[in-house]
């Protein structure tokens, strides 16, 4: 609980012009308390939120996104339910977020944000094209190399195609 209070103080200090920052909006949600109770999760999500390009922040300020811990492999973005987008964060990704290679985990989270930003669940889009478009969101956040590294760790035909596409840019 002490960590939560320290983080709350930090967020309030960061916000000097009384506008709600994307970080403050996100971390003030009660569903994200799990992030505030661990300094490594806080570090990772602060990094993630601050890396969202300014031209894309307005979308996330008006659209609610929840990151919830769950069981599975890495992460998964779900369609909007009850005016809220949800990204499930699985144990293997949580482990990466606490590790020295946490940028790889942030790249995965950014990729899932890309699916939400580009509204893939509302489009008739080929899954491979959706993956590449979500990867472009990661690239816009400056996390291309971290994404290439995590894709290299999880080799498949699809990840090889995605790596090739990222390497072109």
Overview of the molecule:
This protein has 169 residues and is mainly alpha-helical. The protein has one domain (2-168). Helices cover 62% and strands 11% of the residues. A 3-stranded mixed sheet has the order 1-3-2. Strand 2 (75-81) and strand 3 form a beta hairpin. Helix 7 packs across helix 8 (127-140) and helix 7 (102-117) packs across helix 9.
Task: Throw out a few tags for this protein.
169 residues, mainly alpha, 3-stranded mixed β-sheet, 62% helix
Task: Supply the helix-strand structural class.
Answer: mainly alpha
What pattern of helices and strands is seen along the backbone?
A: HHHHHEEEHHHHH
Question: Spans with pLDDT under 50 lasting ≥5 residues?
Answer: 1-5, 10-15
**Largest sheet descriptor:** 3 strands, mixed
Summarize the structure.
With 169 residues, the protein is mainly α. The protein contains 10 helices and 3 strands. It has one domain.
Helix and strand layout, with pairings?
Elements: H1 2-14, H2 22-27, H3 33-36, H4 39-51, H5 54-62, E1 64-69, E2 75-81, E3 84-89, H6 91-97, H7 102-117, H8 127-140, H9 144-153, H10 157-168
Parallel strand pairs: 1-3
Antiparallel strand pairs: 2-3
């Amino acid at each position: 609980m002490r960590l939560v209070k320290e983080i709350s103080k930090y967020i309030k200090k960061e916000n000097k012009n009384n506008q709600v920052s994307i970080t403050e909006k996100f971390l003030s949600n009660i569903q994200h308390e799990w992030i505030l109770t661990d300094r490594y999760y806080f570090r990772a999500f602060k990094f993630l939120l601050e890396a969202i390009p300014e031209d894309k922040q307005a979308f996330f300020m008006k659209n609610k996104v929840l990151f919830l811990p769950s069981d599975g492999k890495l992460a998964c973005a779900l369609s909007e339910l009850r005016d809220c987008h949800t990204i499930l964060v699985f144990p293997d990704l949580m482990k990466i977020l606490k590790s020295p290679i946490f940028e790889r985990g942030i790249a995965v989270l950014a990729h899932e944000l890309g699916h939400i930003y580009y509204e893939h669940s509302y489009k008739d889009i080929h899954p491979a094209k959706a993956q590449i478009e979500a990867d472009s969101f990661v690239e816009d956040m400056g996390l291309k190399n971290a994404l290439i590294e995590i894709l290299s760790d999880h080799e498949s035909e699809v990840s090889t195609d995605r790596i090739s596409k990222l390497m072109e840019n």
